[in-house]
Fold this protein.
Amino acid sequence: MAAGIGLLIGILMAGSVIVIRLKASKKPTNAKKILLPPLFMSTGFLMFAEQSTWISYWEAIIAFLIGTFFSLFLIKTSKFERHSGDVYLKRSKAFALILVGLLAVRTVMKLFLEQSVSLPQTASFFFILAFGMILPWRITMYIMYRRLSREQGIESNA
């Protein structure tokens, strides 16, 4: 039952990200919109104040590296384009498929991990994995944004 609820929550979250990303592509972007999400997400590291969430350094590094690997798919589908002097995140049809694929992989990994570590430690793995996915993706997006902004003489707001 709990696994089904977790899966449902994961599906709802992935659906929310897809909807938010599609809406965001209709509005111009700026440096703040690109860089603030990982900054806000970093507050989640406060979970490690609770000892039950602790995992070893090598496990954290592996989780981060897996997230970084997954970020490559997001980076590949994130492109910017210029319209009327503003920079927009270009829609990618593959983005939704990639998110669904990542959700499937995450679910399989979660089922595997739940058998050998506690629920708080599983949360730690997946938080670090998600941070490892978002941080390189957003940094790369910022670099692409700055490059296009400089080429077009647009203020970066950073």
